[in-house]
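A further point concerns the way the authors explain their paired sequence and structure data. For illustration, here is how one protein appears when written out as sequence plus structure tokens:
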Amino acid sequence: SRTIDNYTADPTIVDSVSGITHTDKDLEEKVVYVANAQTATFIYINDTTKRTLDTHNVPGKYNQPIDYTTKATIDSYVNKGYVLVSDSFPAGAVYQADDTANTYYI
């Protein structure tokens, strides 16, 4: 099967066929490409102490929307007296091929 970056083929190998002539019927082999698994990591940090308060790992697939919201966790910390300094998770974010690009600091 042909290689497509960030996707896995199924089947990965298509057997060759010999002895085909122009009068033979067409042969087809279905190959399905599935986006590779990725993980988005959300790290909640206390900006004063530089201590990690919480980490959430959210699995998904390459180039698919990251189905997550930081709101509930932020609200929980605000209710405990913390002040939101930053939230690097953009609206409409999708999983990138490199999981380090899927890391967000809040």
Remarks:
- Helices lie at 71-79.
- Strands lie at 7-10, 32-35, 37-46, 51-61, 103-105.
- The chain has a mean pLDDT of 94.
- The chain has one helix and five strands.
